[in-house]
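Hi there, hope your week has been kind to you so far. For a while now I've been wondering how a particular protein folds. I'm sending you its amino acid sequence along with the backbone structure tokens. Could you read through the record and tell me how the tokens relate to the sequence? Take your time with it, there's no hurry, and the full record follows here.
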Amino acid sequence: MKASEGTTYTNGILAKQVQYAQNAGLAVNYYHFARFTTTAEAQAEAQTFIKAVQSVTDAKNMVMVVDFEASNFQNLSKATNNQNLAAFDETLAAAGYQKTDLYTMASWIGRYIDTNASNKGWLAQWPSNPSGDAIQVPMRGNGPVTTGSPANHRILM
């Protein structure tokens, strides 16, 4: 579920969404839509994310995902993006969140960002002409490569 974005937005109905999901028997994980362009901003955004999640649970064993697809990241070097993501992840780890993941566009890997063996990411990849098997959701890394209409992939609220 979307918990936060940047340093100014936290989901005001997160507690209700968590309650509904848990009542339905669903496992709950959280994501943060990133806007950071510096290490300091990445750390501040991670703190915003942590506070939003801590407002609804004391648990630390869920997956904490950073949604990394804002267009401003294309204006930064890959090294800067990697450094900022590492700072974000390290801030989560220091707060006790050991299960982290990355959601980004498949076309950004190697161009605007790198992944590593422990965090291969959940990659969005839309086919130009979806049909037949092209709308299936194959696995890659820690999560699926999203290859169809939004109705055919894992739901983030």
